[in-house]
Design a protein that fits this description.
Blueprint (H helix, E strand, L loop, with lengths): L6 E6 L5 E4 L7 E6 L2 H10 L1 H6 L5 H14 L7
Antiparallel strand pairs: 1-2, 1-3
């Protein structure tokens, strides 16, 4: 199991809104993604977030994840 600081929580609420939750306290169904390029690539390619959240994930969430990881991961440009 990874430490909380090593993962990012992606959530969707009852109204259908999606977001990134750094605090881990937003209500709704959630999926966790490690702050790693391999995890990000795998989740995007295999649609792992869609399966975990049981609904289609808008492209904006992947854009937000990309922007977030650019600040967190030094070798993100290898993506």
């Amino acid at each position: 199991m990874k430490e909380k600081s090593a993962i990012i929580r992606v959530f969707c609420n009852k109204e259908g809104g999606f977001g990134l939750d750094e605090t881990g306290k937003m209500p709704g169904r959630a999926a966790y993604l490690c702050k790693d390029l391999t995890c990000f690539n795998k989740a995007q390619k295999s649609k792992g977030l869609e399966r975990s959240l049981k609904r289609a994930v808008p492209p904006e969430i992947y854009t937000q994840l990309t922007a977030y990881l650019k600040t967190e991961v030094e070798d993100f440009n290898d993506l």
